[in-house]
Amino acid sequence: MTDRYASFVQSAAGRALVKRLGLPDPPRLRRHHPGDPLLAGPALLGAATGGRLAEPITKILTAAGVELADPTGANPQRYGALLFDATGITDSTELRQLYDFFHPQARAVLPSGRVIVLGTPPQECPTPREATAQRALEGLVRSIGKEFGRGTTAQLVYVTRGDGAAADGPDLSAGTHTSLESTVRFILSGRSAYVSGQVIRVGGGAASAPADWDRPLDGQVVLVTGAARGIGAALAKVLARDGAQVVALDIPAAGDALAAVANDIGGTAVQLDLTAPDAPTRLAEHLASRHGRVDVVVHNAGITRDKTLGRMDADRWDQVIDVNLSSQERINDVLLERELIPAGGRIISVSSIAGIAGNRGQTNYATSKAGVIGLVDSLAPALRERGISVNAVAPGFIETRLTARIPLVVREAGRRMNSLAQGGLPVDVAETIGWLAWPASGAVSGNVVRVCGQSLLGA
Ligand code: NAD
User: Fold this and answer.
1) Of the residues 51, 52, 207, 277, which has the fewest C-beta atoms closer than 10 A?
2) Is there a contact between 115 and 148 (Cβ–Cβ < 8 Å)?
């Protein structure tokens, strides 16, 4: 489970060898600790002529205590983040403004720095030219994620116009920044350490800022399935740290480990096999009697039963589809039918990059994880009226027992074939799910966010 190579390259001997042989050089990533400042250095903010987000973004950065660099400053500076409001770009000829902003700063970003480009969703653009130019932003951001190195990540955030293009969108033109704030804070912070090259869509939907950004889940009742170990155990810890009351669920056979997780965080434990026919109703009754509701449902439990398709027995197929996909649907149906997920609620599923790229020996798993993406696509618009957001994360190579079982050579390839040259940690997936769970993230729905260090698979 440990990445010995990454530890080795941090040593003096390791550094020398990496340099001499041109070996992969995994940087030490900046991760979140409560009370940390959002960035290690000042942020440089740029905007294309006519951009509409400079004002809200300035407000967000100022409120978050981020120092804004003076672009005309005489002294060359190093930056914690580069942010560019590209919403003013309406034609491909204006893309030059991206070059003009980023070119002089390409080597001025501090380790584990952040690059954020803000755009308008192409489908909301009034002209084909503007939609084309806005779509082009993806190529820049994904390339910066691959180029800048030293733990720097890059994301494109498409922000709805909210001026009729999406009738219930946020009125960003009037300076409202609430919808965007949670996403900008997440990206800038160490919480997003292993998220890079992503396109995130911020739309309409109610969002409310927390009283304390170090406890963004205060008072929220959160269900985490598969919480006894791995990513689920990290999730329980991170969500409890952020203020949530966690209901941790796992199979009865994992009862001891589950109890340890729940005790550790002052949460409650539910022993339940999600595939049991009465699991949805038993779970609904438990949540109703103990809490009267569940604000956030995190479908994390998942299994693999790998075999190439020709050698796979039907049981392997059935079990994987049932645990990873069908049980999520059955539970959603019952919780929604009984109105246990209130307005402002969240459904967050764990998919996988295998569900995007496919994987040899994993037809069952990849089918189930692609289905999870389908669930987000179909349920997010359907639940919009009820004020419930639906999102998924798609982890890449995460250091857990699941990946420790992969044969060495394949494991080493999986670990290094991404822009950060290392595997992610369970906490990286947990922090990303945490952001989607925050009441402040109500404007983020229908997204599938990869937590994969910009893995080459399925990119
Ligand atoms: P894990 O095997 O360590 O943990 C999964 C947990 O789910 C276990 O505690 C298990 O007991 C529980 N579970 C399985 N079947 C269940 C059932 N029927 N009812 C209740 N609980 C059940 O796995 P992990 O690596 O922590 O993965 C968590 C999620 O992340 C899974 O959905 C997995 O597919 C996904 N994922 C993991 C990786 C990775 O690299 N580890 C990559 C992509 C996606």
Assistant:
1) 277
2) yes
